[in-house]
Amino acid sequence: MANYGKLPASAKLHPKPFKAHIDEEKLQAMKTLLKLSPIGPAVFENTSKDQGESLVTGKERRYGMRRDWLIDAKEHWLGSFDWRKHEDHINSFPQFTVPVTGDDGVTIDVHFMALFSENPDAVPIGFFHGWPGSFLEFLGIFGILKERYSPKDLPYHVIAPSLPGYTYSSGPPVDADYSVVKAAELMHKVMVGIGFESGYLAQGGDIGSSIARHLAANYDACRGMHLNAYFTGPPKDEEKAKQMDDFERKVMARGGAWRETGMAYAMEHSTRTGTIGLALSSSPLALLAWIGEKFLEWTDDDPPLEEILESVTLYWLTDTFPRCIYPYRGMFAGNRPPLVYVGKPSGYSLFPKELVPVPRSWAAATANIVSYAQHQKGGHFAAMEQPAALLADVEEWVPKAWHGSAVPEESGSAKGNAGGAPKM
């Protein structure tokens, strides 16, 4: 059997091999709660026939979750869904846990999935997930790489950590503040500690894009970033701000509709973080309604039900939700620092159903874009929805970033207007 689990000899941290396994007692407790969870009554807003189309997707979810979908999902979850099969698939990829202490003195047990190469020229790439995702978003990409390459000729080391508070990683402290910046600092320590002190690359979407940007902007070892979500407003130069093709103009209009009708969840996460964390920890069905809506609304085509249930089940069984929404806290307070221009070689993949899409010209105002691709299919969960397309973009960007990582003079200085789009 091919061994993708051999860490580089230069690793200074000593991760322990990890296998996903939930005790049967906890699994049965979830099923009991699910059986006892009632489906709310039929009302105008949750009936598929009269609800109307979403202004963002055109799907019949103008006011959110449909009652008929939730009924069918509950029945499938109880009668057909087999978590053990999903665990087996997860465990087909090497995984590890390692305690890492941040600059703030807080130690987090970090979980990560990885494919390590025996190729001495392999390029290390960290893949960073967002909310309501997890390392599961990258199973497709990792699967393609396993099929395509053996450990001897794999051209990359690929690492997908679970951010602090997500799934199998331990959570932030309960007696101190935590932030995306602190999480990013920890991710850097992971990448360097497992053997990539001489350099690595970072890829991300959603919260993962903020992680990747922080790494590229602040650490010499991170030689470049590739994002499928650029959270930035228009450049100060009005002419550059208007530079967009027909495709970009179309997706920008959709993004504007999402800002108008799809931000309620973020306001709740930001301003009543404790309340929503406790509320959704009371019922797996409630968690499915809240997170399932996002997987249905934020994608191009509805994902398979099994895929949605896999993510929601993992969230429930690992108590992820209340531990993981700290990045949203205070995001509407207006006190975010301006974006720092990233002069290192950066890539950008624009998918048509991304929530907050921006044209290349806007992205170029905050990063040195050396690789750019537009896609006709795909949404906010690009790695999950279109793994082959995103991987192809990353593979096109890697040699430009790895072999051309000289940092222009403007790197490290504020450039462009960082306002406008909300930070995820």
Helix proportion of residues, in percent? 25-40%
Distance between the termini: 40 Å
Count every helix, treating DSSP H or I runs of 4 or more residues as helices. Answer: 16
Integer-rounded radius of gyration: 21 Å
Largest sheet: 9 strands, mixed
The CATH superfamily turns out to be Alpha/Beta hydrolase fold, catalytic domain
Mean pLDDT: 91
Counting DSSP E segments of at least 2 residues, the number of strands comes to: 9
- General form: globular
Count of discrete structural domains: 1
Helix and strand composition category: alpha/beta
CATH topology type: Rossmann fold
For the record, the CATH class is Alpha Beta
- Contiguous uncertain segments of 5+ residues: 405-424
Strand arrangement, major sheet: 1-2-3-5-4-6-7-8-9
Order of helices and strands, N to C? EHHHEEEHEHEHEHHHHHHHEHEHH
CATH architectural label: 3-Layer(aba) Sandwich
What portion of residues belong to β-strands? 5-15%
Domain Epoxide hydrolase N-terminal: 15-138
Family: Belongs to the peptidase S33 family.
Organism: Friedmanniomyces endolithicus
Keywords: Hydrolase
Explain what the structure shows.
The structure is a single chain. By secondary structure, the protein is of the alpha/beta class. The chain has one domain: Rossmann fold (3-Layer(aba) Sandwich), CATH 3.40.50.1820. The protein is built from 16 helices and 9 strands. A 9-stranded mixed β-sheet has the order 1-2-3-5-4-6-7-8-9, with helices on both faces. α6 links the parallel β6 and β7 (222-227). The longest helix has 17 residues, at 180-196. The chain is globular. Mean pLDDT is 91; it is low at 405-424. Residues 15-138 form the Epoxide hydrolase N-terminal domain. One of its GO terms (biological process) is epoxide metabolic process. GO terms for molecular function: epoxide hydrolase activity. Residues 405-424 are annotated as: Disordered. InterPro entries: AB_hydrolase_fold, Epox_hydrolase-like, Epoxide_hydro_N, Epoxide_hydrolase.
